[in-house]
């Protein structure tokens, strides 16, 4: 059983960016299983090398809509939901540096008992979590573009967050609920992972935590170029000698050469296709569709608003104008190679 600690908003935010702690919402990124945040980006934020993300409108709306999603969950499942507190945290009993904030608690005991309907109430923060019936409930809101990600199962990084919540709260099960595009509602129950899986996850999270505390960054991924640029926006003229850097240099130089060659090969192949298609619109080979090369009309564009163009010209302020016209655009209409 685990008890909640009720924090202030300031204390809660500080804990999320404390190098020694980690929240359930950060675990998937630390494990390299978050499609939106890499381990290096999380590391840089925790180290203070990158600013903490500002609260976006989508994040604010998600928070504001939590009661709506909770009510949908109650209506769909017949289960009660309880709010443990906006800034209440639960620490892992064996790893107190790991903590979770539950959106809601729920129970597999139905709200309905004959003709009586139980009242949904807020349970005090010092009430222990009951292992047999209570579960964690994580509430999500997202746009309609995410509908496919929620059909059949919840996204993996949300499942990881829920598992950490169960680990911290000592619960045997949990539920994920999502309002997608204000038009679709999904909910899924999950059992807590086995103890050996929990310990493996804790070990990996501990390894990441040690990296953050020691200033030892994880390796960058293919999407981390902007992250490292932001981490080191300037230089101070010194020279550093780093073991293993020669291998990184070799990879960079060879990849640049391959990219240059690939660009040249693509241009040559495109030229041959244009020669093949001539002034036709579509190109086939033995009846098999390959490419379309059709004319498109594009409007001229300005780097400033149209209403400012005349004034900028009079004042001698330079700006760019892209002339419109008709261009031909090539696109593939064939399938994979046989």
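^ structure tokens above, recovered residues below v
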């Amino acid at each position: 059983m685990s008890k909640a600690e009720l924090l202030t908003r300031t204390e809660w935010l500080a804990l999320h960016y404390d190098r020694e702690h980690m929240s359930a919402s950060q675990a998937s990124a630390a494990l390299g299983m978050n499609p939106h945040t890499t381990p290096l980006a999380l590391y840089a934020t925790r180290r203070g090398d990158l600013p903490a993300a500002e609260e976006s409108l989508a994040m604010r709306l998600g928070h504001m809509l939590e009661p709506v999603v909770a009510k949908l969950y109650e209506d769909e499942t017949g289960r009660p939901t309880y709010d443990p507190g906006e800034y209440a945290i639960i620490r892992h009993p064996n790893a107190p540096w790991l903590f979770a904030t539950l959106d809601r608690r729920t129970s597999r005991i139905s709200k309905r008992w004959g003709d009586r309907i139980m009242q949904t109430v807020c349970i005090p923060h010092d009430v222990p979590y009951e292992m047999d019936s209570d579960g964690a409930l994580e509430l999500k809101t997202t746009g309609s573009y995410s509908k496919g990600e929620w059909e059949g199962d919840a996204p993996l990084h949300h499942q990881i967050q829920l598992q950490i919540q169960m680990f911290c709260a000592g619960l045997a099960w949990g539920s994920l609920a999502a309002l997608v595009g204000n038009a679709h509602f999904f909910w899924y129950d999950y059992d807590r992972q086995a103890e050996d899986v929990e310990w493996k996850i804790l070990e990996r999270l501990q390894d990441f935590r040690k990296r953050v505390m020691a200033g030892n960054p994880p390796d960058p991924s293919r999407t981390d170029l902007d992250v490292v640029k932001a981490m080191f926006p300037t230089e101070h003229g010194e020279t550093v000698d780093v073991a293993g850097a020669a291998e990184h240099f070799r990879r960079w130089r060879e990849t640049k050469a391959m990219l240059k060659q690939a660009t040249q090969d693509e241009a040559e192949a495109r030229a041959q296709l244009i020669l093949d298609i001539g002034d036709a619109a579509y190109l086939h080979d033995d009846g098999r569709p390959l490419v379309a090369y059709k004319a498109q009309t594009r409007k001229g564009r300005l780097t400033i608003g149209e209403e400012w163009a005349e004034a900028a010209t009079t004042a001698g302020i330079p700006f760019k104008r892209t002339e419109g016209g008709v261009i031909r655009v090539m696109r593939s209409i064939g399938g994979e190679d046989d």
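Confidence is low (pLDDT under 50) at residues 111-125.
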